[in-house]
Amino acid sequence: MTNRPATLPPSPIRRAAGLFAGLALGLAVLAGCSSQGASTDCGLDACTVTFERGVDASATILGVEAKLVGAEGDQVTVEVAGEQLTLTTGQQATEAGGFAVTLDSVTDQQVKIRVSRNPGN
After folding, report:
1. How far is the C-alpha of 101 from the C-alpha of 91, rounded, in Å?
2. N or C: which end of the chain has fewer CB within 10 A?
């Protein structure tokens, strides 16, 4: 006969602690984003940033700052990870500081870009 300890189901306190730890981790990931004159929608490896035009708009995402420098017609200048990029709607992604940056849309009121980590970095 083998003496094995009985396996008990997790207690409600242990389950609650696990749930709390998971929520805290999720909030820590989201806390890495902040913005002024912009809104962000982030996942683990990519963020969509919507800048309001006519204000000093910037956002900190994925550990780097993204700023709207200017917009004219369908051409937008942004600064991501300290590098200035000029983007056009429909253009392939441009690399900046280990990130791929694309211009999703530009209107009279907003500019929307997507910033994602390059797979090789």
Report:
1. 10
2. N
Measured CA angle at 103 (ends 107, 121), to 5 deg = 155
Per-residue tokens: 110: 């907003």
Q: Domain-by-domain residue ranges, the chain?
A: 34-117
Q: Which residues pair with 94 in a beta bridge?
A: 101
Triad 8, 11, 12: Cα angle to 5°: 155
CA–CA distances in Å: residue 88 to residues 2, 70, 74? 71, 12, 6
Q: Where are the beta strands (DSSP E) in the chain?
A: 34-36, 38-42, 46-52, 58-61, 64-72, 75-80, 83-88, 94-96, 99-106, 110-117
d(CA 93, CA 87): 9
pLDDT in tens, 2-54: 666 556 566 666 565 554 444 333 433 444 566 788 999 999 899 999 999 88
